[in-house]
Amino acid sequence: MKSGQLLHSELSATIARMGHGDGLVIGDAGLPVPRGPQRIDLAVTRGVPSFLVTLDTVLSELRIERVVLADEIKLRNPAQLTGIEALVSAYQARVAARVQVVFVPHEEFKQLTGSAVAVVRTGECTPYSNVILHSGVVF
Asked: What is the CATH number of the domain that holds 59?
């Protein structure tokens, strides 16, 4: 049995297969999942698992270099943005690397999800609780 935080076998295998620059989307329960990317549905009920718990767990396994968020999160869900920024900041301190944070309009964000390796659906039911994590390298 794995001894790390991430126990979901499908998500763990997806992360293991990712290469430099690949995108992994973590989304709320309402984010449309386009045809193409693998769909990893973790949603059990409203709020379970939460977006931030899922993001924190993925960051324990995935080396990232870039984060993409929708501009709309700034006004429509500032509490979630604060949580994301805290997790990214803690991640940067832990791995001693800088992560670029990029904001795009939500419609552009949804288009970008089509080129992701996978879209992870959480039980989160707050607006704009979505992120694209672009993988980095460990060296």
From this structure: 3.40.1650.10
Question: Is the pLDDT at 3 greater than 80, yes or no?
Answer: no
Secondary structure of 52-65 as H, E, C letters: HHHHHHHHCCCCEE
- Does 109 reside within a domain? yes
Is residue 77 classed as helix, strand or coil in its secondary structure? Answer: coil
Check 8, 20, 106, 134 and give the catalytic one. Answer: 20
Instruction: Please state, in angstroms and rounded to a whole number, the distance separating the CA atoms of residues 49 and 124.
Output: 7
Question: Is residue 1 over pLDDT 70?
Answer: no
Q: Quick check: is 8 catalytic?
A: no
- Residue 42: inside a domain: yes
Which strand ranges, in their side-by-side order, compose the sheet holding 131-135?
Answer: 38-41, 118-121, 23-27, 131-135, 64-70, 100-104
Q: What is the mean pLDDT of residues 72-80?
A: 98
- Name the nearest CA neighbour of 11 among 113, 116, 120, 87: 120
Q: Report yes or no on 131 lying in a domain.
A: yes
